[in-house]
C-alpha cells in the first residue's frame, strides 16, 4: 500500500478538467500535491474549490502558475520540493485547433514534455504517469481496442500523444531507472458529485457532452449530431464514456503500481475506459433523462477524422492496476447536470466573465 504520508506529487495541468479531479483524490488520500499550470485552459477557482472540498487536507496543495516550457521556473520548483512522482496532464487538446495551429501544438505539448523530462532526470525524479489518449487507435479495425493495437495519428494533437509515448519508451530504454505509466483515456465525462468542480471549456466546446451541457443551460440553441450513417445501432458514432471520478481513481491506481511493482514496471501502457460503447443518441437520451431538459438536435454529415466505434479493452488495467470503472452513463449524466445547473457559466459565474 502506498504510504501517502510523506509523498509529494507534482501534477502538471492540475487546474484543468481531469487534473483538478485527480488532485482532489490525491489530497483526500493524504498526498501532498504541487500543481503547475499556465491557466491557458483553466481557472484557478478550480483549485480553490478543490482545496475546499479536501477539507483539512486542502492545506497540502500548492499552486504555481508556470508554463511547462519555462525551464528556469521548473528548475526552481524542483529545487524547492522533493517529488516522488509526476502526473503529467498539461497539454493542449483541441483536435480542430491542432489542425489549424500544428506548430503551437508541437511546441506546447512536445517541448513542454521534453523540458519536464529533462528537469525530472536532473533532479532524479524518474516516476511518471502520462495522459495519453484513445486517439492513438485512430479508426480501429475492430473493437474493443487492446493496448497492443497498431497506433496511428490522424491530426497534430494525436501525433503529439504518439510522439510523447515513443519518447517515454525511449527514455526508459536509455535508463531503466525510469518507471513510466502511459494512460490512454477514452472519453471522460461528468463531474465531481458535489457539483463544485467540473469541465469548463474555453470557447465553443469541441466534445459532445460539454456541448450538450451548454445547450441544456441555454447557452447554445441546439446540438449538431455529426453523422447518422455509421454502421452502428442508430447510425451515430459510438464511444466509451468514462466518469471523470473513475478516471481520477485510475491515476491513483497507476501511482500505486509505480510504487508497489516498481521492479516490474518499465514503460507500461493501460487503457482507462469502461469497455462499453454508447452512441451519440443514447448519450443525449441519458442526459435528457438525468436533467429533465430537452436537447434540440440538428442532424449533419460526419465530422472529418471521426471514427465509427471506439471502446476499450479493460482487462489489462483490471488485472495489473486492480482498477475498474464503477460508474455508468446514468451517473455521468447526473453528475454532469448537477455541475452544469449549479455553474451554468462554469467557474466564471456569469456570461460577462466567461469566454462563452
Ligand atoms: P484541460 O485543458 O482541462 O487541462 C489541461 C491543463 O493543462 C489546462 O489547465 C491548461 O491550462 C494546462 N496547460 C496546457 N499547456 C500548458 C503548459 N505549457 N504549461 C502549463 N500548463 C499547461 O484538459 P483535460 O481534459 O483535463 O486533459 C488533460 C490531459 O488529458 C491532456 O493532456 C489531454 O490531452 C489528455 N486527454 C484528454 C481527453 C479528454 O477528452 N478530456 C482525452 C484523452 C486525453
Ligand atoms: N459529436 C457530435 N456533436 C458534437 C460533438 C461530438 O455529434 O457537437 C459526436 C462525434 O461525432 C462523436 C462523439 O460525439 O461521434 C464523440 O465526440 P467527442 O468530440 O466528444 O469525442 P471524440 O471521441 O471524437 O474525441 C475525444 C477527444 C480526443 C480524445 C478522444 C479520446 O476530443 O482528443 O476523445 O478517445 F483523444
UniProtKB/TrEMBL annotation:
Pathway: Carbohydrate metabolism; galactose metabolism. Residues 10-335 form the NAD(P)-binding domain. One of its GO terms (cellular component) is cytosol. Keywords: Carbohydrate metabolism, Isomerase, NAD. Its EC number is 5.1.3.-. InterPro entries: NAD(P)-bd_dom (IPR016040), NAD(P)-bd_dom_sf (IPR036291), UDP_G4E (IPR005886). Its cofactor is NAD(+). Belongs to the NAD(P)-dependent epimerase/dehydratase family. Catalyzes the interconversion between UDP-glucose and UDP-galactose. This is UDP-glucose 4-epimerase. It comes from Eleusine coracana subsp. coracana.
Amino acid at each position: 500500500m502506498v504510504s501517502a504520508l510523506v509523498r509529494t506529487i507534482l501534477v502538471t495541468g492540475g487546474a484543468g478538467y481531469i487534473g483538478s479531479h485527480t488532485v482532489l483524490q490525491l489530497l483526500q488520500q493524504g498526498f501532498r500535491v504541487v500543481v503547475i499550470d499556465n491557466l491557458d485552459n483553466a481557472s484557478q477557482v478550480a483549485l480553490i474549490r478543490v482545496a475546499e472540498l479536501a477539507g483539512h487536507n486542502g492545506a497540502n496543495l500548492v499552486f504555481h502558475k508556470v508554463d511547462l516550457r519555462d525551464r528556469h521556473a521548473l528548475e526552481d520548483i524542483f529545487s524547492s520540493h522533493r517529488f516522488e512522482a509526476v502526473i503529467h496532464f498539461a497539454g493542449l487538446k483541441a483536435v480542430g485547433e491542432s489542425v489549424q495551429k500544428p506548430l503551437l501544438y508541437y511546441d506546447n505539448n512536445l517541448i513542454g514534455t521534453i523540458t519536464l523530462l529533462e528537469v525530472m532526470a536532473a533532479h532524479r525524479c524518474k516516476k511518471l504517469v502520462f495522459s495519453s489518449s484513445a486517439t492513438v487507435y485512430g479508426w480501429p479495425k475492430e473493437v474493443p481496442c487492446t493496448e497492443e493495437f497498431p497506433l496511428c495519428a490522424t491530426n497534430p494533437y494525436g501525433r503529439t500523444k504518439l510522439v510523447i509515448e515513443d519518447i517515454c519508451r525511449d527514455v526508459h530504454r536509455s535508463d531503466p531507472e525510469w518507471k513510466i505509466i502511459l494512460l490512454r483515456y477514452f472519453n471522460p465525462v461528468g463531474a465531481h458529485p458535489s457539483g463544485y468542480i467540473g469541465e469548463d471549456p474555453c470557447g465553443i466546446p469541441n466534445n459532445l457532452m460539454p456541448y450538450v451541457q451548454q445547450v441544456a443551460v441555454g447557452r447554445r440553441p441546439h446540438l449538431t449530431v455529426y453523422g447518422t450513417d455509421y454502421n452502428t445501432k442508430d447510425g451515430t458514432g459510438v464511444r466509451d464514456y468514462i466518469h471523470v471520478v473513475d478516471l481520477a481513481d485510475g491515476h491513483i491506481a497507476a501511482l500505486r503500481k509505480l510504487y508497489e511493482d516498481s521492479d516490474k514496471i518499465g514503460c507500461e501502457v493501460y487503457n482507462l475506459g469502461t469497455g462499453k460503447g454508447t452512441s451519440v443518441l443514447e448519450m443525449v437520451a441519458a442526459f435528457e433523462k438525468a436533467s429533465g431538459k430537452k436537447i434540440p438536435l440538428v442532424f449533419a454529415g460526419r465530422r472529418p477524422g471521426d471514427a465509427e466505434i471506439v471502446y476499450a479493452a479493460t482487462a489489462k488495467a483490471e488485472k495489473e492496476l486492480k482498477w475498474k470503472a464503477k460508474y455508468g452513463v446514468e451517473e455521468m449524466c447526473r453528475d454532469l447536470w448537477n455541475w452544469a445547473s449549479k455553474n451554468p457559466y462554469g467557474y466564471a459565474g456569469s456570461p460577462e466573465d466567461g469566454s462563452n
